[in-house]
């Protein structure tokens, strides 16, 4: 039993940001890196699936990026993952298709039973890396999963998908399959210092991806959009502001 | 983030007579417990405000003569050349930081008990003080008036030589000039009493003389109360204050406008329980309409938007602040740099005031543990040294006020990793639910500020929804463990009055309840008739009485004390609290202690006549008797012994806050802060000695 979890070290912006000189990205000095929230849930779910199977099997975390991506892997190792692989990748374009392709190169030789990914990343919010990955792995994929029951004997996973209006879509899928995990499926565990220290001693294997995927898109320019006009800012204490709002509402209704 | 341009008005310099204020942030006169006799504490405390960006910082009320001696409370003093020397340190330090130094010349009249000097204060009429019990003044004749005016002039000259830029002739909070102006204190029939012109005469002449003496060198400021909220007999805005402003406008360089007298000065230093920020603006705005001189005014201003609006709308020229500058000495700098969410906002609890009211001790602040520790412990509110043992990982168990503060400061001191473990989903501890009591919403700022700071600290992580037992702590992998698990209200009626539980008191029964059960436990209060027993004497009893009465219960509030919530007298909350409880028909019974509780019934006795019993029909009894530390976890760990802890890598085990002994929130925050500041001292459990501003005698040896 082997579960691969794909994770990303997302950028967390500070109060102030600057763009790189080519205006195509945020300057690295203006953000921190952390494990993507959706991926933390995916890692947690992988650990729980393994626990439900009596602790047998391996949880492998994979990411794409430079040394700054190690924070995400280390967090998963501290949570209890067994092994971590970082795919170094010098292609300049980091779109979901290129990333999905690089991930697939590292995942194929592992022959996993399940591949878990997060629904989306909090920084670029593409929501499509998992889909691209499934395509390159030629595996079925289930989107926006809020509950997983995996039966190792039949190699089938029953996934609950949350739909609008509280509807639940129950999907049965033959594995291996790629499952895109939604937040709320679980509360990711918090590693203790001991687990963090142990994780720091575990090695992260480095592999390089051949690349070669055709990139789907191209960032032209990043900028802070100008403040939209037409908004009236109300100054003053809560009572003043409340009074003004009441007046405005009355004016507009009149 | 850059500063919002709409706040730029706060940074425009402004002339005050012969001086220039560099911006619109002005720390008004307020006590801190230092006076002239702890000159280092005084100077360092005010200088921190200057460093934090305030354009001016003032002394507290500053006595001009031994006849105006407020002992046991601590005022500054300018009685002689030694006082000049002591206060000059404050002036020098303010000037180093580019701020103006102000001094508030004060003569207390009937309100100065003169317990140290044993002088007799003088006042317009012989009426005992409505503030300082059993103090009578001598009624002034014309010679007295001349003499006291002479005290003002002499003190103003001393103020100038100490280096003060702004000299106040203070006529607010019912002190001497206001006493002359106000019929409540002034019953005279000579030319110093009666008509407005006569009642204004003493103050006008005094300002003239002070201006004549030092007006070329110093700005002359007047602090004026514009309303005493007592009708005709008190100071009134239109009848007294505005005409006075017009009368002497040409003699004054700065108007410092507020409201209230002394016996209810909570109308000025407003508790957040009753008033929101900016509540004095209507009065200040009226003065602004009649004067040509700049107006500074207070209003517990913590929001840059509200401040900028007060100036733009023409109600104030300068933002005055007392408590907001205590809570965050760096408020101006933070606004200037657009760091709005770093502002540590005053919660309006008035713990600072309580220390002055009690008399003597250094003032403290719930939000700012470094307040008055600038000199004696060398604490800077914004600067932290890297801990010498920063390569350690620290586990803080319990995210209440002490735990949050400790984790935050440890983070700022660069510890490798700090985990703040919390059983609940959110941090806050008791401060998750205390702000849900009526009127205490702003107290949640204690949590909000720390939450935002902790969020920004990369080395501090909240571990929510996690309850650790001793084994989990042991195996956690921390080198340093801090237990901050708080306290709980006794469930069996144990109390300090009888030091025994109360028969029948058992909060596992449906009709007996504790504050936590009501506020967070979801326990239903049976029936209509509720008896609350308050042996605590601060806010919990009256707050629950207000809450339950508002919810429609018939509330009887019993206390063994002679007065309900006596500590709230010190926080200036009591008068309005009593008004509120009265309007809600809460039945307050003092000197009463519960003898027994049964379903449907409680029996109390008079503490000075134990045979005198009263039976209460009580569907529910709420016990506010005493708190006990949640110390089981700490004890279990400690009992394992140092060797067992060391074998798991734990080299330090400490406890802080209510877990050590139940205290006020300010003390718990201090405790957490203190441990974090001294985490690399030889024995962090024991506070390091602090510098004492005292006179050390030189012994002459034969
Ligand atoms: C601890 C404390 C001490 C004070 N001492 C003085 C004083 O010595 N002289 C004075 O004129 N006002 C004094 N005040 C009143 C303040 O100057 C101010 O008018 C009041 O606190 C309202 O301002 P704020 O809302 O900015 O706190 C004191 C207030 C506090 C909280």
Task: Give the gist of this structure.
Chain A has one domain: Rossmann fold (3-Layer(aba) Sandwich), CATH 3.40.50. Chain A is 28% helix and 27% strand.
Write the SSE topology:
The complex is a heterodimer of chains A (254) and B (702).
Chain A: E1 2-6, E2 9-13, E3 31-35, H1 37-52, E4 58-64, H2 70-79, E5 83-88, H3 96-107, E6 114-118, H4 129-137, E7 141-151, E8 156-162, E9 168-174, E10 177-181, H5 193-201, E11 204-208, H6 238-253
Helix pairs in contact in A: 2-5, 3-4
Chain B: E1 14-16, E2 19-21, E3 25-27, H1 39-51, E4 56-63, E5 76-77, H2 81-96, E6 100-106, E7 122-123, E8 138-139, H3 142-162, E9 166-171, H4 176-181, H5 196-214, E10 219-225, H6 237-248, E11 254-258, H7 281-290, E12 295-297, H8 304-312, E13 318-321, H9 323-327, H10 331-336, H11 351-358, E14 393-397, H12 401-412, E15 417-421, H13 445-456, E16 460-463, H14 470-474, E17 480-483, E18 487-489, E19 512-513, H15 515-519, E20 529-534, H16 539-550, E21 554-559, H17 567-570, H18 574-583, E22 587-589, E23 592-598, E24 600-606, E25 609-618, E26 620-624, E27 627-629, H19 632-640, H20 642-647, E28 652-655, H21 665-677
Parallel strand pairs in B: 3-4, 3-13, 4-5, 4-6, 6-9, 7-8, 9-10, 10-11, 11-12, 12-13, 14-15, 14-17, 15-16, 17-28, 19-26, 20-21, 20-26, 21-22
Antiparallel strand pairs in B: 1-2, 18-27, 23-24, 24-25
The structure holds flavin mononucleotide (FMN).
The site of flavin mononucleotide has 24 residues of chain B, from strand 4, helix 9 and helix 11.
Number of strands of chain B: 28
- Strands of chain A, total number: 11
Total domains of chain B = 3
CATH topology of chain A: Rossmann fold
Tally of contiguous helical segments of chain A:
6
Uncertain runs of chain A are none
- Segments of chain B where pLDDT lies below 50 for 5+ residues? none
- Report the C-alpha radius of gyration of chain B, rounded: 27 Å
Derived from helix and strand composition plus strand pairing, the structural class of chain B reads alpha/beta
Q: Helical segment tally of chain B? A: 21
Rounded mean pLDDT of chain B is 97
Task: Report the CATH architecture of chain A.
Answer: 3-Layer(aba) Sandwich
Distance between the termini of chain A: 68 Å
In percent terms, what proportion of residues of chain A is strand? 25-35%
Reading the helices and strands of chain A in chain order gives EEEHEHEHEHEEEEHEH
As laid out across the biggest beta sheet of chain B, the strand order is 3-4-6-9-10-11-12-13
**Class from helix and strand fractions of chain A:** alpha/beta
If you average the pLDDT of chain A, what whole number results? 91
β-sheet strand percentage of chain B: 15-25%
Helix % of chain A is 25-40%
